[in-house]
Amino acid sequence: MGVSLADNDDDDDFGETHEINVTPFIDVILVLLIIFMVAAPLSTVDLPIDLPTSSATPQKKPDKPTYLSIKPDLTLAIGENPVHRAELIGTLDGLSDMSKDKYVFLRADRSVPYGELMGIMELLRSGGYSRVKLVALEGAPGAPAAGAAQP
After folding, report:
1. CA–CA distance from 147 to each of 41, 142, 144 (Å)?
2. CA separation for the pair 132, 62 (Å, rounded)
3. What is the CA radius of gyration of the chain?
């Protein structure tokens, strides 16, 4: 409750000022900001893959993306769980939040040969997963991707 200390001789009562105290609101926002700053890095896939860069415009990521990763030693992982190539389609079919019309986000280390990457994409296509998005790191617009041939 605020008071006004103006010199009013005819009114001895203190008048109220109607202001909103925003300090608790700011405190709550700061706590939420800290929580999200701590939780955001934990929600990403943490496999040691050296992704190539791309200057393409980043697109919106779904709430629960399904990541298929090709590691440098050519082993596969769905999320962070290793999977054998022969069991890939069966494992994808067994995921509760996966369907054939959802995107599979394919992450491949830059040292993976192009033929291996295409082989995995063909395996996905033959299993009915034709909606595949390739994952890369963001690069500078207009700059060639890292590892690209220079003229």
Report:
1. 27, 15, 8
2. 13
3. 27
Exposed e or buried b per residue across 103-112, where buried means at least 16 C-beta atoms within 10 angstroms of its C-beta: ebbbbbbeeb
Strands (E), the chain: 2-3, 16-17, 53-54, 66-70, 76-78, 81-83, 104-108, 132-134, 137-138
DSSP assignment of 18-45 equals -----HHHHHHHHHHHHHHHHHTGGGS-
Give 51's Cβ-side CA count (13 Å radius): 15
Q: What share of the chain is helix, strand, coil (3-state, %, to 5)?
A: 30, 20, 55
**Is 47 in contact with 130 (CB distance < 8 Å)?**
no
What are the tens digits of pLDDT across the range 60-87? Answer: 777 778 889 998 898 899 888 899 988 8
Contact 32, 40 (CB under 8 A): no
Q: Are 67 and 107 in contact (CB under 8 A)?
A: yes
DSSP state of 150: P
pTM to 2 decimal places: 0.55
Q: The tokens of 33 are what?
A: 């900001």
